[in-house]
What we know:
By secondary structure, this protein is of the alpha/beta class.
Amino acid sequence: MPDSNRYMPNEMHLPRIEASDLEANAKIVQQMRQQVRSGPLKSAVWFLPHFTHALKGGLRTTLSLAQECSRKWGTQNTIVLDNFFGRAVPDSIPDQIRQHFPDMNFQFVVLDREGDVSSLPQADAGFCSLWVTAYTLARYNKCHTKFYIMQDYEPMFYPGGTISLMIEQTYRLGFFFLSNTEGVASKFRQYSDWGMAFTPGVDTELFHPSGEEAKTSGPYQIVFYGRPNNDRNSFLLGSEALRLVKRQMGDNVRILSVGMTFPILRYELHGVMEHLGLLSSMEEVANLYRSSDLALSLMATPHPSYQPLEYMASGCPAVTNINELNNWLYRDGENIILSEPLPNIMAERIIGALEDADLRRKVIAGGIETVSNLSWETAFDQIMNYIASPSGETTAVSTLQPTKAKTTPIAAKAKATPPADKTRTNGVLRDKDLTPEMLSEYDFLDMGTKDGNSMSYAIGNLGGKKGLGVELRPEYVQKTIDKGFAYIQGDATKLQLPDNSVSFVLLSHFLEHLPDLETLDQVIATSLRVAKDFVFIKGPGYENEDYLQSLGVRIFYSHWSGHPIKPSSKVLSELFKKYGQNDYEFMFHRYITSTDDPAIHSLQSPINQHAFDIDLHPPKPKGVVFDRRIPQEMMGFVRLREGVVLPSVPLIETLPFV
């Protein structure tokens, strides 16, 4: 009888988790969201996968963040190597960390394969990275807050199946996520709104151009990020395209493969490319990029990879595959060269770029301009601001504006045409054509839905089953439709829908963006009219504004050009009463206790600022403890029918209305 275990991948045994562990984690998660911790971290525990070198990709990002916490906050870090495979751990690891991250305060702990977390110290926060460490963090409950550093969408590291399902489950554990790029965050938002996205930086002191002009004739040098053991880097596609390039260009091109050691003869690439494998230092890597005429790096997952950014900074034009989730970064023919993931076409694009010096000059200039806006210092500041004051509203932090990628000239993408439907115009529902029968499909409306994230909140927290978004701005239409949500493009004050059309209406971080109090009145009236069970409101806490101003301070969002009005609980209660609604309650959470909170600015701070930064903003009173509770967020229910059971909204504390 065959031994079935030999067909089972090692990863099958990695989630060392029991139902009791999940229950204990759920309690901690509920507590951390009900009473969100704010302020610098005094201590933190970081769960890292087994590694032999401290400067590898995402690991370097995590350790750099831990170092920044020590630099700016004096954080005492416990670096835990989660040795789930039971491999030998090099004695040099602590020395490597000290060498490369000299400002980090840390102790180094190896967690054996049994994963006993009971001996780890108490900490303000716990951080996980690779998916298996998320299960370890789920069992570690000696911290107040848990963060998931999401470097990529890891289910795509494996074929769809058992392992990818176990990875996906880690995203349901309830941690705050710190997502490396907006593309990765867009995948995580399928599971949670509790987190932020950041744009990675580039070390431009290490990666910089040589200053030489783009070649107008060969021989040319191509550097290839060749990693056959990592499916997401599409080694077979890249190597086949380069085989075709070499066949056509011969000695006029030299191809160098770096990034991983592999048997080049096994892939029949002898004579096609030279295999350099892992280079000995980052300086050697940077020198190679500077001396190359073109670089090829492919990525099948939402993260764009650090390699194209480093190519750009080094003045080396990059080629990569089309990936719509990276449109925020890549502009074909302007800062990069995009290709369909097809070997023959990719080879044509590479050869065409080598033979077109003007194109390479344009791409080089665009790439250098792009990375000039990418700073690790800025990224870490924004991440730390979020760690110091996390929230349930997904925050995207970027120094770049999202761009629409151009279609490659070889194969234009055809747009799908929606089926003919008299209730749709350009794929958007028209409210005036929606009959009661059609509306019966939907149980809630999301006013001001924007890109649909609040609809996920309604389904996950308010008991909604199928929502209908309402948004005036056409630029958000396709984003919402792409997420599988139905959409009305229209004015929330003038909806032509019957009374009692849906069970409830959601107004999430929408009211403060309305132009004036008259419009607010109209939106509330419409919401109360079309809902039959309840209306739910979620937004900034505009309570105690006068008190804060008497101390010479304000909360950052109260001085924001995008918030023309301040719908406090008092303002809203007056509107509810105006329309005969007296069964309502307000709830508050994420309390600020003193002027030292990063959400607090002086009255002299300029408009449209976020977390307070001592190096950027005017000084504010220090150490003033508030004599009342100052909430950052307000939520409210209006019950429209007697006997309606309101959903138990998590993470909030009910207070009497004053």
